[in-house]
Write a structure and sequence with these properties.
Chain lengths: ~180, ~250
């Protein structure tokens, strides 16, 4: 899936050399982010390039809560990326996300990396990118796993807005979901 | 009575603790008296770090207080300051700049993560009407040969035992409560209770190691921060109000 520049939104977190410390600040940034996302946004890029360091408390209140909300609803941006991280801010996100079993997709140069993902989910995401658009059955066959197992993995990547899921019609009739990975 | 006469060495912890104890005593309607250190260098340092200025409005200052021309050392120290939910972000910003500029980006960011979590604790569940006080100092290592950063925050809130006993519905004893707090045994419904355990993981990135001391109620925990951290939990004879936290980070 190629992102449409017209519906891509970039949200810059903090002012230059920002040190983000409190839960209160996390709540404010979360509300600000939510206010700035138009309903038709296809890709949201959350840019941390200005952030020097941030606490787990801030990150939990801001980014973790945003991704937790995304995981429980179908509306909102189809894809979400984080970018501009340094080693510190990346590790802080991993700490905040690991405990909730959440994933955030990071744009790292020309690559996309699922943060706080297990090896199994990272491998599934790599395969998804190689396949482009695919079904859960294709992932199950390629990885030698059961269809429900493939579905569970894809569900988590969709919840993190790392993959886009669309409902279609299967060749033999009936409903079938197809999945697409973001192309940079 | 805050008897500082015999002080030979003083760190941010003692400075913040002196002001905190004086403030709590005053809030309880007790007379407060500071006996100034005999060592003129230490007495001068107490003045430099705002201890006398913060106590003066309500305390009797007993002893010779040096008059000094104050230089700006904001690039290497934070004088004792009250930290509140209103000014915590300003204090964190200042400390963040200080540590990243002087310790380097990696060690500085790691130190910021830890000190900001300690300040968060002091201004949320550790907060009370008598406030919390913080201080910090960077060391060049000229005397100690161990350059690094030292930070302290003392609050007069409920203390770790009370907060954790309430969160777990158990009557936790002092050392056990501190051990639980440091090892992350408490997961509260709203996802909190992770700040202190993360110190183990974060505080020493890019550093040569360090120490964390927590004193709350009648217990004290001392933790050596390193890749294989160790900690000691014990009782103390003199209980304190709230929680005192001290962090020392050494840099290569």
């Amino acid at each position: 899936m190629k992102p449409d520049p017209a519906t891509t939104v970039t949200y810059d977190v903090g002012q230059p050399r920002a040190f983000l410390s409190t839960r209160e600040r996390g709540r404010k940034v979360l509300h600000d982010l939510e206010d700035r996302i138009p309903p038709d946004a296809s890709l949201l890029v959350i840019n941390f390039a200005n952030v020097e360091a941030m606490t787990v408390s801030f990150t939990d209140e801001f980014l973790r809560k945003y991704y937790s909300t995304l995981a429980t609803q179908d509306d909102g941006p189809a894809c979400v990326l984080v970018t501009g991280l340094n080693n510190d801010t990346r590790e802080t996100i991993v700490i905040a996300f690991e405990r909730r079993e959440l994933i955030a997709l990071e744009r790292l140069g020309d690559d996309l990396v699922p943060l706080a993902a297990s090896d199994v989910l990272s491998d599934t995401f790599k395969l998804a990118r190689a396949l482009g658009t695919f079904t859960a059955t294709a992932v199950a066959e390629k990885m030698g796993i059961s269809a429900p197992n493939a579905n569970n993995r894809l569900k988590r990547l969709v919840a993190a807005r790392a993959l886009v899921r669309r409902r279609g019609v299967a060749e033999r009739g009936g409903k079938e979901f197809s999945y697409s990975a973001l192309e940079l | 009575m805050l008897d500082a006469r015999g002080l030979q060495w003083v760190s941010p912890l003692e400075l913040a603790a002196i002001v905190t104890m004086g403030t709590v005593a005053d809030a309880r309607g007790r007379e407060v008296r500071l006996l100034v250190p005999h060592d003129p260098k230490i007495a001068s340092y107490l003045v430099r770090m705002n201890v006398v200025e913060l106590l003066k409005p309500f305390a009797e200052i007993d002893g010779a207080v040096p008059i000094q021309e104050r230089r700006d050392h904001s690039d290497k120290l934070l004088e004792v300051a009250e930290v509140t939910p209103t000014n915590i972000e300003v204090v964190c910003d200042r400390l963040g700049l200080l540590v990243t500029e002087r310790l380097g980006p990696e060690a500085g960011r790691a130190a910021f993560d830890s000190l900001a979590e300690l300040l968060n604790n002091a201004t949320t569940h550790g907060y009370s009407k008598t406030g919390a006080f913080t201080a910090a100092q960077l060391y060049s290592g000229t005397l100690s040969r161990t350059p690094g950063f030292e930070f302290a925050v003392c609050d007069c809130g409920d203390g770790i035992q009370k907060v954790l006993s309430s969160a777990t519905n158990q009557d936790l004893e002092g050392p056990a409560a501190l051990e639980l707090a440091l090892n992350g045994g408490v997961r509260r419904a709203e996802g909190r209770g992770h700040g202190l355990p993360n110190l183990w993981r974060q505080a020493i990135r890019g550093c040569k190691g360090g120490e964390l001391m927590l004193r709350s109620g009648g217990a004290v925990a001392t933790a050596k921060l390193r890749s294989d951290p160790i900690s000691i939990y014990s009782r103390v004879a003199e209980p304190v109000d709230g929680t005192w936290a001290w962090l020392r980070v050494r840099v290569p």
